[in-house]
């Protein structure tokens, strides 16, 4: 079972969960995103948002947190490959951070589209 297809998938899932836990436990940027995800989840229940709004909100949260995780991995690899400052490594890190910025900006737009009408109705 250990080396079977299913066994490998289960083991891979364990590694993925370990990586997600390490991100939430050790990375301040992910901790901020995680806190924001809790706030918008509570807001979703408070305002009783629609099923479609939940889907868009979950996609937005997942997109930002995934981008943040990939950015963290890219930065760790870049630092491992070239620990000293290097202009190209700096460029790579900036581009990875830019991807997170784009994802976060789109998530903010989605949040505004979802929540502004509910806030106006108060």
TrEMBL record:
Tell me which residues bind a divalent metal cation.
27, 75
- What GO CC terms are in its UniProt record? plasma membrane
- Active site residues of this protein: 68
Major location (coarse) = membrane
Cofactor binding, per record: Mn(2+), Zn(2+), Cd(2+) and Co(2+) support activity to lesser extents.
Annotated TM spans:
30-47, 95-118
Q: Which domain of life is it from?
A: Bacteria
Positions with a binding annotation for ATP: 15, 27, 75, 93-94
Under InterPro entries, the record lists: DAGK, DAGK_sf, UDPK
Give the record's membrane topology.
Multi-pass membrane protein
A GO BP term, please? Answer: phospholipid biosynthetic process
Which residues are recorded as binding substrate?
68
Q: Record's Pfam families?
A: DAGK_prokar
A GO term, aspect molecular function: kinase activity
**What Gene3D superfamilies does UniProt report for this protein, alphabetically?**
1.10.287.3610
Subcellular localization: Cell membrane
Cofactor(s) demanded: Mg(2+)
Question: Which keywords describe this protein according to UniProt?
Answer: ATP-binding, Cell membrane, Kinase, Lipid biosynthesis, Lipid metabolism, Magnesium, Membrane, Metal-binding, Nucleotide-binding, Phospholipid biosynthesis, Phospholipid metabolism, Transferase, Transmembrane, Transmembrane helix
The UniProt family comment states:
Belongs to the bacterial diacylglycerol kinase family.
Q: What is this protein called?
A: Diacylglycerol kinase
